[in-house]
Design a protein that fits this description.
Blueprint: H1 3-13, H2 15-28, H3 30-39, E1 57-61, E2 70-74, H4 75-86
Antiparallel strand pairs: 1-2
Amino acid sequence: MDMKEYHQKYYLDHKEKIKASAKQWKNNNPDKVMAHKIAQKIPLKKECGICKSKIGLERHHWRYDKPLLVATLCKPCHTIQHVKHFVGGNYDRR
């Protein structure tokens, strides 16, 4: 079973738990939800702001209290930015 099949099966087996968790997250993070809604209206640039890749572009908020401050990043660079924020913070598991 590949990862895509595994995730599909997991979702089907845990659908209600996943929906409840998503609803709780939205209730606990209204600023992030609003920032995401606002960002959807901001067009993506044509390349990643870090590595200049044109593939797999996403929006990244540098600060959720400034919802218009959005960067266009590729998936790998976006992931790296989130990991960098966890190191040394509350979620650092080292």
